[in-house]
From TrEMBL:
It comes from the Bacteria. Belongs to the CobB/CobQ family. CobQ subfamily. Pathway: Cofactor biosynthesis; adenosylcobalamin biosynthesis. The lineage of its organism: Bacteria, Pseudomonadati, Pseudomonadota, Gammaproteobacteria, Oceanospirillales. Keywords: ATP-binding, Cobalamin biosynthesis, Glutamine amidotransferase, Ligase, Magnesium, Nucleotide-binding. This is Cobyrinate a,c-diamide synthase. Its cofactor is Mg(2+). Residues 380-404 are annotated as: Disordered. The keyword GTP-binding does not apply. One of its GO terms (biological process) is cobalamin biosynthetic process.
Length: 444
């Protein structure tokens, strides 16, 4: 029987720029409707590890990334379709500004027909807020805009000035006052990891629900219009999956130092036939029995002393490497693989030493952007986001190919069974190449 269209109320939260309050408002909405007994499925656009952790706790449901470039249209369509079958509400949080990036949040919303709500920090403006919202709403004719959310609104008079300046087809959905009690905690790469502040987040989520209820404009407090979602076989064929990792066990580092893990990547490895086991480089003394190892990104720079002092784990991973088994080390995992790492206080600590070189944090300056990892095993799409540097590393086997710039991207290193790079890979973009990285000696 051919799968049929599924309708689900849906809203896409966007903004003219970063730091307008999108994540706070998306989390507040997710918890508001979850408290009403609704199943809320939230998606985050673009490559992001931290926001989804926050949104998953707020919605009490898994949160996945949607990105047309990184994952492909068919993948995004399938995820939305699957969510629509179980959800009472779908929320999508955009990245950066509404039209930033290729593809942008607007591209994603237009492709799947999801109406957008514009989140705007209106502090220091009144009628101009309406002008900004109107400009965004009318910039393209293929984007549906449901209305404006005026964040950090000072008073009812402030809201009235904005409301009166808006045309009737662009309603004011909510006017939200400034409230530090609901602001989400941050650190140098973005929001703090949810697991570190679970109890605090619960308090902020519930405060944010009351914050939403205080608005004089109640457009956000009822379910948005339903959007039709279609099965993937109507928009493109799914990737054929061969279980190259059947019978293989992959040990995944997962703790406060290593947590930048897409759920989609875990599901990708399982779809390839792998069994997954998790371990903590911070706390465990030995590796679980495994055929391959994944050291994902995270915050090793915040835990350099503990990682360095866990000599039993360092020795276990060094032995694993010397045995020639497959290891993938991404960003923070690559820093852990180097000989030393200098933290934010300029303290240098010994690390694994399975890859020559030294890593060091460099404050506010960093590198980010979408790149394709060009490896001998195949091209895998992903992104870079780091505020560190590495030096005296070996000759790379390849470089990332930047999405919109001809200069070489991040270096990619391979030796024995190790593949290491600053790049965070999205496994679903090339399952066959991903599988080869975890097999013994990736260069075979």
């Amino acid at each position: 029987m051919t799968p049929s269209v599924v309708h689900c109320p849906s809203l896409f939260l966007t903004a003219p720029a970063s730091n307008q309050g999108k994540t706070t408002i998306t989390a507040a909405l997710a918890r508001y409707f979850t408290n009403q007994g609704k199943v809320v499925r939230v998606f985050k656009t673009g490559p992001d590890y931290l926001d989804p952790q926050i949104l998953a706790q707020a919605s009490k449901q898994p949160v996945e990334q949607l990105d047309i470039w990184m994952a492909g249209e068919a993948y995004c369509q399938d995820k939305l379709y699957q969510a629509a079958q179980v959800a009472d509400l779908i929320l999508v949080e955009g990245a950066m500004g509404m039209f930033d990036g290729e593809p942008s949040s607007a591209d994603l919303a237009a492709r799947f027909g999801i109406p957008m709500a514009i989140v705007l920090d209106v502090k220091g403006m009144a009628q101009t807020a309406a002008a900004v919202a109107m400009g965004l709403a009318n910039f393209r004719d293929d984007v549906q805009v449901a209305g404006l959310i005026a964040n950090h609104c000072g008073s009812e008079r402030h809201a009235e000035l904005i409301r009166e300046a808006l045309p009737t087809n662009l309603p004011l959905l909510a006017t939200l006052k400034r409230d530090e009690e609901i602001t989400l905690p941050e650190r140098h790469l973005g929001l703090v990891q949810a697991d570190e502040v679970k109890d605090e987040l619960e308090i902020r989520f519930e405060a944010a629900v009351e914050w939403l209820k205080e608005t004089q404009d109640t457009g956000l407090l009822s379910l948005p219009n339903a959007v039709p979602f279609y099965p993937v076989n109507q928009v493109g064929a799914k990737q054929t999956i061969e279980q190259h990792l059947l019978g293989k066990t992959i040990a995944v580092a997962k703790d406060a130092a290593f947590s930048f893990i897409y759920d989609a990547n875990l599901m990708a490895l399982k779809s390839l036939g792998a069994e997954l086991v998790f371990f903590s480089p911070l706390h465990d003394q030995a590796l679980p029995k495994a055929d391959a190892l994944w050291l994902p990104g995270g915050y090793p720079e915040l835990h350099t002393k503990a990682l360095s002092e866990n000599t039993a784990m360092r020795q276990a991973i060094q032995d694993f490497y010397q045995a020639g088994k497959g290891i993938l080390a991404e960003c923070g995992g690559m820093l852990y693989s180097l000989e030393t790492l200098t933290d934010l206080e300029e303290n240098e600590y010994p690390m694994l030493g399975i890859l020559a070189g030294q890593g060091a944090m460099r404050g506010e300056r960093g590198c980010q952007g979408m790149q394709t990892a060009v490896t001998p095993q195949g091209d895998i799409r992903g992104h870079a986001h780091h505020r560190s540097r590495s030096a005296n590393t070996p000759e790379p086997v390849g470089y990332g190919r930047r999405q919109r710039h001809p200069a070489p991207g991040e270096a990619i290193y391979q030796q024995k069974g190790l593949t290491a790079s600053y790049l965070h890979l999205f496994f679903q973009s090339n399952l066959d190449a991903t599988a080869k990285l975890f097999l013994v000696n990736p260069q075979d």
